[in-house]
Amino acid sequence: TLGTQTDYRDGEAQTDPYSPEYVVPSGSVPELLTLATLTWGRGLPAGLAEVEMIERAREKRAWEANLPAMDNASQIAKRRKMMDDMGRKEWAFREQEIEKLQEVRLEVLKKLLQRREENQNELDAKRLDDQWQNHQKAKEEKIKKIQHDCARMLRKLIAKRKNVMGKLERRDIIKEYTDFASQTYAPLSRTGYFPDNHSECYVVKNFYLNTFAGLCELEASLPDSVTHIKIKVPKPKYATTKTGFIRRSARLEVELAQVHQ
């Protein structure tokens, strides 16, 4: 009454094909036994190369069946000639197989060389990119340093321009205290003043906040309205009926008041 659904297809759970046991009758040589070396994954299922091998084996068996007997000298010479021709044919086929194998190896070698060249090109591009990034960072740092030095030299020139003739100026205390951006109110750190060093002078020290007796005295001086909170129930803004709904007249009054505002 229940069904199941797996995450795998049938081909992933399929085992190797079953090869049953067999018995060969005496005096018979089945052609299928010549393919006993082929197994699943190694020649099976048969491809073009296996089909060519089967056809070649059939031709060789037919050629062996047509060989002349060795009971006559003329037949022996004919048999030897046929065997020499078959040997040359086998060597030619062997050479073709070697050439095909060499071509396959050459293609594999080309692909490996191409892949190695692509990887090397990627590494070179990455190395050039890193060098370009480093040069850019060094360039930005140099530009920042030049801008910083330029601002500093401009400040020096402005300070020198204020006193071109080199005259001594007396301190104007009134001007310093009327200008809230002067050294009196906001001294610069580069002049040797650091405002955070004496920050404890701004801490509030109060007897009523730092001691228990002061807290008790402060609490006693507070009115009852501070320590005892009175909560009043808010009145409804709208006139409601017994069932809890807002009257239409009350809603219209609120809308009119909003429009008036």
What do these coordinates show?
With about 260 residues, the chain is mainly alpha-helical. It has a domain at about 45-160. Helix content is about 55%, strand content about 0%. It has seven helices and two strands, in the order ββααααααα. The protein has helices spanning about 50-65, 75-160, 175-180, 205-210, 210-220, 225, 250-260, and strands at about 40, 45. A two-stranded parallel ribbon has the order 1-2. It is elongated, with a radius of gyration of 53 Å. It is found in: Cytoplasm, Cytoskeleton, Cilium axoneme. It comes from Pluvianellus socialis (Magellanic plover). Its main location: cytoplasm.
Layout of secondary structure:
Layout: E1 39-40, E2 43-44, H1 48-65, H2 73-162, H3 173-178, H4 207-210, H5 212-221, H6 224-227, H7 248-260
Parallel strand pairs: 1-2
Domain CFAP91: 4-156
Organism: Pluvianellus socialis
Protein name: Cilia- and flagella-associated protein 91
- What share of residues is helical? 55-70%
As a whole number of angstroms, the C-alpha radius of gyration is 53 Å
> Which percent range describes the beta-strand content?
under 5%
> Termini, distance in Å?
74 Å
Major sheet: 2 strands, parallel
Instruction: Report the strand count.
Output: 2
| Shape call | elongated
Strand ordering within the main sheet = 1-2
Q: Look at the structure and give the mean pLDDT.
A: 84
Alpha plus pi helix count: 7
What is the chain-wise order of helices and strands?
EEHHHHHHH
Could you say which structural class the secondary elements and strand pairing correspond to? mainly alpha
- Low-pLDDT regions: none
